[in-house]
Specification:
CATH architecture of the largest domain: Orthogonal Bundle
Shape: globular
Strand content: under 5%
Largest sheet: 3 strands, mixed
CATH class of the largest domain: Mainly Alpha
Distance between the termini: 54 Å
Structural class: mainly alpha
Number of helices: 24
Amino acid sequence: MDTTENAGAMGSGAGDRFAAACRHARRASVLASVEALLGWDEQTMLPPAGGPHRADQAAEMAAVVHRLRTDPAQGERLAWLADSPLATDGSPTEVGTIRLLKADFDKQARVPTRLVEALARATVEAQQAWVEARASSSWSLLLPHLERVFSLKREQAACQRPDLDPYDALLDDYEPGARWREVIQRFGPLRDAVVPLVKACGESRRRPDDSLLTDADFPVDAQKAFVREVASRIGFDFERGRLDTTEHPFCSTLGPDDCRITTRWNGRSLPTALFGVLHEAGHGLYEQGLNREWYGLPPGEATSLGIHESQSRLWENLVGRSTAFWEWCHPLAAAAFPASLRGVPMSRVHEALLVVRPSFIRVEADEVTYNLHVMLRFDLERAVVLGELPVAGLPEAWNDRFERDFGMRPPDDAHGVLQDIHWSAGLVGYFPTYTLGNMFAAQLMAAIERAMPGLDREIAKGRFTDLLAWLRRQVHAHGRLLESDALVAAATGESVSSSWLVSSLRNRYGAAYGL
């Protein structure tokens, strides 16, 4: 990594300080990756009794990372660089790196180490409580932990971005530049289109049957080999990554050559693991496509969670549920699961993936109703952060809203407010990035199809190289030097709009239901 691109033009002082600032930031990222390793292990390997000590470990490690990230010497370097010619006349990479490192430092320096430690400890304890609470559908087991987490997150928001309202301050962590009032304006037209589409699909006489994929024999060992082959074929590099089992699928990057994806298994349902892996492998492809020479620095980091979700949802839904994909994948699936799929036409398998059926669990929701799940969570968590809804009131508010949106009431909290780990993990402000990611994905895919008229033929042959190369050039290569809207606009030639997602859903699911 050359961190002194314009050292000659700008003077050795600027070049040297820029290089020192980058070394410091990268060192902090290396330590943060150790913190991430503790989190990955917690979700995959930690024995049940190990939770309290892991909370101690996480709190200590978070404090070490925070102290390094807020080292006054780094602050002085960045302040000097921000006033130097390099901050305005350097290369775009240098200018963007200085701007973002300075903004990161200022935000983090406002948060006391005490609060960082408290959050790390509280979220480990809350996640451990969540596992037990979800298994027993017992809201009371999680309630005190969530009250603690939300209280700490409000305090964090007030510290790090006092110029923003509390929810915007938290949203900005995951989707820089986004503001909740603008998100609501984007979600409105999408909701207005999705609700009648769900109703029309429910009333249609033509209904795809998914039982051949969700109520049949899919041995887990065979699934493991099958999904690994699929992930590898779309481009996920298992020399730089791995696949493991967890309760709630996720992707965790522990270094430029260590990207770990997870899934869960259901011996009666193929989509559970397959689309979990396609989703997480999409995240992994993004991480593996970032500039490894700039690891730990803005040019080598993801733009936002919304862009991250655009990559996972593009591979999961716009590729993985396409006719072309199953023209290639169907023979592999039939060979892997002969008892269930041998002799079943590809058209029936593909049709089974386009079922629209309101369900209680977000991660198992169909593509059309999925965004209603996200909007529910977005509205509820915002109400809690802004003081409009007490944490104790979440179950009733959840169930009431779910009944209005889906026409059915969760039978218990495990099928309702307890189903997601995000709030227990302190990921408040994260949920809207899922639907933003769906919007970005549909717009990006439309641009890809314009640029690559033969894309379906390539996918039908199991060739994904050109598609991945387009994403590498247009999305991954920017790191986080561009915010989401600017990146999508640059890649597609148009400003961000939900119209692409609306058209995509109507075209694909409308055809499946004869609408």
